[in-house]
Amino acid sequence: MIRKATQSDLEPMIEIINDAAQAYKGVIPADRWQDPYMPPEELLGEIADGVVFWCFDEGGVALGVMGIQDRGEVALIRHAYVRSSARGKGIGTQLLRHLAGMTTKPILVGTWAAASWAISFYEKNGFTLVPTREKDRLLRKYWFIPERQIETSVVLADPRYSGQSAAREA
């Protein structure tokens, strides 16, 4: 079952995010890794900044979490994680489809350039990598992240985004 996260989901969400983010350890640049990957106050900050989280729940246990954030002309998929013990069961795809169905806006997602599994996941779900120059512009416009993270990240866009950047630059 997919449901909107509530206050009582904060602890399980932190567990899911920090469990799943262990995959980044030793993969993303060492200066971008922290333990825990997402402390509770950071999650609360994301919620305060407008990220609306949804949980995939099975038998009363949250197995996956994904957020969506309205940023004006686009929506962002934020913090998409599935418990390591529940990977490969389609949970991430179900969450992504659910959130994508909530908006008619183009959807963008940012992830680490070194996270090949995450990039592959989004590509299998119809997203395409945007060119580096466009990626840098998008990350600066829609995300609030340090310059170092911009350097080491990629942006993928769903089909609704296709051609928008070219039209704006023409």
Brief sketch in words of this structure:
The protein is 36% helix and 24% strand. It has 170 residues and is of the alpha+beta class. The C terminus is likely disordered.
Structural commentary:
- The protein is globular, with a radius of gyration of 15 Å.
- It has helices at 10-20, 40-48, 91-100, 116-124, 132-142, 147-151, 164-169, and strands at residues 2-4, 52-58, 61-70, 75-82, 107-112, 128-129, 153-157.
- It has a seven-stranded mixed β-sheet, sandwiched between helices.
- The longest helix has 11 residues, at 10-20.
- By secondary structure, the chain is of the alpha+beta class.
- It is built from seven helices and seven strands, in the order E-H-H-E-E-E-H-E-H-E-H-H-E-H.
- The protein has a single domain, classed as Gcn5-related N-acetyltransferase (GNAT) (Aminopeptidase), CATH 3.40.630.
Largest sheet: 7 strands, mixed
Q: Helix coverage percent of residues? A: 25-40%
Tally of DSSP helical segments: 7
Distance between the termini: 44 Å
Q: Determine the mean pLDDT.
A: 94
CATH-level-2 architecture: 3-Layer(aba) Sandwich
Give me the count of strands: 7
Count of structural domains: 1
Strand order of the largest sheet: 1-2-3-4-5-7-6
Task: Give unreliable regions as ranges.
Answer: 165-170
- Overall form: globular
State the main characteristics.
170 residues; alpha+beta; Aminopeptidase; 7-stranded mixed sheet; globular; disordered C terminus
